[in-house]
Structure formats: structure tokens, C-alpha cells
């Protein structure tokens, strides 16, 4: 295997995609240290210089400011004694990159939703109903009182009783109407059965506190806390089950 020959600044520019001016600027600001020169005074970039410039390009692509790149370069130049400081600097920027990825993922999902919307407009000539929000849904339950106790005591919903033995659970600007199995009100779903629902609620209570409340009440956590995607972006969720074994997901939206 042949050793790589030192590169001229023009060859380095061609290989890295940086301009000659940028390479000189990086050296002037200290991002690139001590590039060797030949007898005529021309720069000659070693294989180690090539690897370092490629790493700088990765940092730049990941949005690291020049000031932090300069700090990292200075620490690297000081030797192994700064390894811990360099690691902390990279970990700090890694967290920023991860947060940006989560933010962009949320934006990407909204963009995909909008694209799907326009695809739907293109695929149909019939007018479509424009919805605003979900007002209520119906749960068919085995035991009305057990369900009311669970949703009011564990999830803080407000039980409401109507004429004719109808029950509902209010929360936020929505409600759940309850039908007891075998005594459903008309009209109803084609095949209403207890334990067939999979519901997600957004909570003001932090997920850590939700976990504590579930533990206090002896309610088994099915899964969580885990990251999921809600209607408006990333969420953190906890899963458990109600008396009919419906799957209940309670979530917080991730902070921007």
C-alpha cells in the first residue's frame, strides 16, 4: 500500500469541496493548525490534515458555530489532556442536533400532511367535509360504574348523568359517552364491544407524575415512558389499560 502524497491547497480544495479562500481562512482563524510548507513555501496537506478537514466539514454540516469549532480545534491542539473537555463539547452539540432533528421531524410530518392533503384534492372532484375537531366518542363497557370510577378517579374526568340512564365523562372540550354492553343506545356502531378501543389523551400532568400516580393506584404500566408522534408533533407517552382492557395512552407534547 502506498502512502498518500501531501496535497497542494488546490488539490485539498477539490477533495474537500471547500474553496482555497476558505481553507486559508480556516488556517488563519486556527481551525487548521500548522499546515506544513515545502521548500518553496507552498502548503502541503498531510493525510491527518485531510481527516481533520473532513471532520470540520461534518461539524459545520451539523450546525456547529465557528466559535465552538475553534474551541474544539484549540483543545485538540493542546493534546490528550483536553480529551474530557472535547468530549463534553461534542456531547453538548449532539444534544442540540438531536433536539433539532426532533423539531425538524415534527415540521416534516406537517409538511407530509399538507402534501397528502393536496394529493387528496387532486384525486377527487367531489367536495369534502371540512372537520374542526373531535367532539365526543362512544365506549361500550361491561360495567358502567367501574368505568366511571376509573376515568374519574385516575384520569380526572367529570362524570355526567343524563335522562334515560345515559352517562358521559367530560374532559377538556370533549367527552366520552358510555354505552353498557347489551343495553346500547341507538344508533350505535355496527359491532360494539368492550375492550376494542385504543385511545390517546394529552395531559397537563407531567409523564413522571403520571407514572407515580399509576404506581400509587396499583395500575400496571403496559409500556412507557416512550417517544411517539402525536397529531401536532413528538409526544412522550405512557400506556396502561382501563377496566375493559381498552389501551389507554396518556401523553405530553415534547417541549420545543
From TrEMBL:
Pfam families the UniProt entry points to: Glyoxalase, MerR, MerR-DNA-bind
One MF annotation (Gene Ontology) recorded for this entry: DNA-binding transcription factor activity
Span of domain VOC: 133-253
Ranges of residues in domain HTH merR-type: 6-75
Organism placement in taxonomy: Bacteria, Bacillati, Bacillota, Bacilli, Bacillales
Coiled coil: 87-114
Entry keyword set: Coiled coil, DNA-binding, Transcription, Transcription regulation
Source taxon at top rank: Bacteria
Record has Coiled coil as a keyword: yes
Species for this entry: Cohnella candidum
Protein name in UniProt: MerR family DNA-binding transcriptional regulator
Record InterPro entries: DNA-bd_dom_put_sf, Glyas_Bleomycin-R_OHBP_Dase, Glyas_Fos-R_dOase_dom, MerR-type_HTH_dom, MerR_fam, Tscrpt_reg_MerR_DNA-bd, VOC_core
CDD domains: GLOD5 (cd07253), HTH_YyaN (cd01109)
